[in-house]
From TrEMBL:
Source species: Schizaphis graminum
Chief location category: nucleus
InterPro entries: BRCT_dom (IPR001357), BRCT_dom_sf (IPR036420), DDR_Transcriptional_Reg (IPR051579)
Limits of the BRCT domain: 82-146, 167-242
Protein name: PAX-interacting protein 1
GO biological process, one term: DNA damage response
Subcellular location: Nucleus
Keywords linked to the UniProt accession: DNA damage, Nucleus
Region (Disordered): 26-46
One Pfam family, short name: BRCT_2
SUPFAM superfamilies: BRCT domain
Lineage, opening ranks: Eukaryota, Metazoa, Ecdysozoa, Arthropoda, Hexapoda
Superkingdom, taxonomy of origin: Eukaryota
Length: 242
């Protein structure tokens, strides 16, 4: 049988000149892989600027331990804003846990706000970055701090109160979450980011009813969509969560 397979490769294939010319003049297009999205924020393109051509314009660049690590929210690709940060001697945050500053174009709730509000030191508007760039130095954040964040023009939180809480990164400390796969607005990935940024734990598999009942009350929290109610039917029928 092996001889039969090898023999097939020895048979020459006749290719006409016309066929050869057609392939040569119309090559098959090569598909290029798209760059991988940011691991922490999948809706954001991987658009980091190269630092090779960046010239530091800061007249008094901060030492490494005090260097602002900036995350941008609402600026789209934000190339110009990234350039400002780098020219001032700052860095661009790769994930929310590294960020010291969240710069927001508008005072509205965003995924980055929900992730960063538990960890960053400052939440400021875009004018802080523009004015700092004009002055060639990082300016104080006080007058640029965002006071309120809203959704549909309704205030949902007072930012300064949250930032003044030294334990805000422990909001979900000791809490265990399970997010059903049908959760889409926001996605399971984003919900996980928000929970973990506030000290919570997200498990990929749901625990059994018995295992949940053995935990302390209000320790295990399930986030489910209407389409996933069959996955938590036993919890609904029981006294769990009541």
């Amino acid at each position: 049988m092996l001889t039969c397979f090898i023999g097939a490769w020895k048979i020459p294939i006749n290719v006409t000149q016309e066929s050869y010319d057609r392939v040569r003049n119309n090559p098959v297009p090569v598909k290029r892989k798209r760059p991988r999205p940011n691991a922490n924020f999948p809706d954001q393109e991987n658009n980091d600027l190269s630092t090779a051509d960046i010239i530091i314009t800061n007249i008094n660049p901060p030492p490494i331990e005090y260097r602002p690590c900036v995350m941008l929210s609402g600026f789209g690709l934000g190339k110009e804003e990234q350039r400002m940060v780098l020219q001032l001697g700052g860095t661009i945050a790769k994930n929310y846990s590294d960020a010291t500053h969240l710069v927001m174009k508008e005072s509205v709730r965003t995924t980055k706000f929900l992730c960063c509000v538990s960890t960053v030191k400052h939440i400021v508007n875009g004018e802080w970055l523009k004015d700092s760039s004009t002055q060639h130095m990082f300016l104080g954040e006080a007058i640029y701090t965002i006071e309120e964040v809203s959704v549909d023009q309704k205030v949902i939180c007072k930012v300064h109160k949250i930032l003044s809480n030294p334990n805000r990164h422990e909001l979900f400390k000791g809490k265990i979450f399970y997010v059903t796969p049908g959760v889409t607005h926001p996605s399971v990935f984003v919900v996980r980011q928000i929970i973990e940024s506030a000290g919570g734990t997200v498990e990929k598999q749901r625990r059994s009813l018995r295992a949940i009942q053995e935990l302390e009350p209000n320790t295990y929290i399930v986030v489910a969509s209407n389409n996933d109610l069959h996955l938590v039917a036993d919890l609904i029928r029981s006294s769990y969560g009541k």
